[in-house]
Task: structure prediction
Amino acid sequence: MVDLSKLRSLVRDNGYLYTKDVTNAGIRRENLKNFLDEGIIVRESRGIYSFTDEWNDEFVLLQEKCKKGVFSYGTALYFHGLSDRFPEKISMTVPKNYNVFYLKEKLTNVEFHRIKPALWNLGIIEMTSPQGGNILVYDIERCICDIIRNKKDADPQIFIQSIKGYFSLKNHNYSKIVEYAKQFHIEKEIYIYIEVLT
Result:
């Protein structure tokens, strides 16, 4: 049987062990099954494992499962500190042409938002999740544009708190939010909020 320390050395920075890394290192898949049966590792998703004695980041794992998912809306607003309430469902935005049908059945705690591929990557940044992993999230200006665009579906408390919070920030970026607003065709709404709240 393979040395456990060798297997641990293959764990990526995100805390997970991948079947392809194991096989590329010349370790047979049967070894994974043995460690799985012994309860040393647990299968997180297809081809992704973690050690049971390690604490892993659920947000990193979600992005591993949904490769094109970017944390957005109330979830991203919470990460940015513009909302003090974590939403009931985690929000992820994907391009319209990315199939999430099979993921919806498995990830019942995730609400998927679909958008044109040309607008999907607007404002993506990397940040540290509350559990310490590196994740992709929309920047603050994109989050504000998204919540204004979907005001009718937004939680009123989160909407008010995040809008007021953004416009009271010292480091808000008006030129960026206006540029985003142009692409989403909500310039008029953004200018109204700028005028009223600043």
